[in-house]
Design a protein that fits this description.
InterPro entries: At4g00755-like (IPR055336), F-box-like_dom_sf (IPR036047), F-box_dom (IPR001810). The chain has eight helices and two strands. The chain is mainly alpha-helical and about 200 residues long. The protein folds into two domains: about 20-80 and about 95-115, no CATH class; about 120-175, no CATH class.
């Protein structure tokens, strides 16, 4: 049985599109994809076909673009998506698990790239106070004082009740406005207290 190899011209004549991934090969295709500098263009590329999507994800172009836009992202130590169940995450072979991880990373880095390139509107990312490891006097020195000032701008602060073991750190816990927040500034103003008279 003789197999006939189709030329690109024959494919075009029959109305089928030409996939440049097959025509150019992986190396030149990777060079072309690496020139995309907008996450929207990369997202459109992944929607062209399954082979394009697999190619983009396998070569981590979304991560490369995100790190190019915002190099500080390289300091992230972990990527999590709460929508992926632990049962689904642990299912299947190690090869499948590797592909799943690449797919999750792709989605995270695409969202990050889009958000980092969007117009920047700085705002407070804290939604509300959750609690403090300890408080000296409630409610006068509660954690809520770290977010608010009264109208007359009188001193408003949180004060620690202290731990018996000085090696135990104090902590303040806040709930954020969204699941992913980019924090570029933290303002801390220590308050020097007076020692009680003995």
């Amino acid at each position: 049985m003789e197999r006939r190899r189709e030329s690109p011209a024959m494919a075009r004549e029959e109305g089928r599109g030409l996939d440049f991934l097959e025509s150019l090969g992986p190396d030149i295709s990777a060079t072309v994809f690496s020139l995309l500098d907008d996450p929207a263009d990369l997202a459109r590329a992944t929607a062209v076909s399954r082979s394009w999507r697999r190619f983009v994800i396998a070569n981590q172009f979304s991560k490369i673009l995100c790190l190019w836009v915002y190099p500080e992202v390289s300091n992230f130590t972990r990527v999590e998506l709460s929508s992926i169940s632990s049962a689904h995450r642990n299912a299947g072979s190690s090869a499948f698990a590797g592909l799943e991880k690449l797919g999750r990373d792709h989605r995270v880095y695409m969202h990050l790239s889009h958000d980092l390139l969007s117009p920047y509107d700085p705002k407070d990312c804290i939604s509300c106070c959750v609690g403090a490891s300890s408080t000296d006097h409630l409610p006068e020195e509660a954690i809520e004082n770290t977010l608010e000032h009264d109208e007359e701008w009188r001193p408003s602060y949180w004060s620690s009740g202290g731990q018996k073991d000085p090696a135990v750190p104090e902590c303040l816990i806040y709930s954020l406005q969204s699941e992913l927040c980019l924090v570029d500034e933290i303002r801390i103003r220590p308050l020097k207290g007076l020692a009680p008279k003995t």
